[in-house]
Structures are given as C-alpha cells and as structure tokens.
Specification:
Order of helices and strands: HHHHHHH
Number of domains: 1
Number of strands: 0
Helix content: over 70%
Number of helices: 7
Length: 140
Amino acid sequence: MYYEKFIDLKPKIFDVVKLAKEYMRDYDALEKEYESKKDVDFMEEFDAFHDIESKQKLRNYLKSLTNDEIMILQTVMYIGRDERRKILESNFNYIFKQKFEVLGFELGKEIDRSAEISMMMSKSPLARYLIEGIGKLSYE
C-alpha cells in the first residue's frame, strides 16, 4: 500500500526537490549579500526573505498537494534524515508505516496543512532529505 503511494508520488517529490533547491540557492545568495553589506537597511531587506519568489513557488506547490501526499512527502523526508540504511523491499511497508505512524499520520485523515508545510519548509536541507529518502526507499 505505502510503496504504491510512494511510487505514484515520486514525480512530485522530484518537483519539490527542484523547487527546494531553487529556494535555498536564492536564500544563500541573499544571505551572502547580507554578510558582505552588514548594514541596517539590508538587514531589513534580509528579514523580508519570506518574500523570495522561489520560496513562494515552493509553498504554493506544497499547498497544491493533497493531505495524503503531504503526509507521504514528509515521511520520505524523515526517512531520508533518520534512516541509516537502505530499506529492503521485504520491509518497505513495515518501516514506512512505522515512520508514518510515529509522525501521527493516517491516510485519509485531516492534517494541519499550514503547520505541516511550514515545518517542511523550515528544513533547510529539505531537498537533500528528500533525495536521501528516495534513495533509501527505492529498490527497483
């Protein structure tokens, strides 16, 4: 069950990876510019980083996902961050379900979309976590 949902979501996970990389690239560039200026006016501009266009694109894309997709995406992210080894085909559903439930998720249930999206976006290595999660979960 979880494996099929993961496979179906893979293209969207790669979309999120791309958008997260773009956002972090833009954020890092703005941060470097801030470090070189170190003035109050630019500091105010830096504080407004919430308005970075690439961040809005990422947020809007995540908002377009269903609740189930958000939960699966977040589970992949945490598997990428937490698991130390590749998940074998024989225990995929068990490990995925275990992580899914630890996060308090249940397919078909409502979630606090805003909180879940904000939490994912706060992970600066979001793209890396997702790529590592895909790698640990892919066995074909």
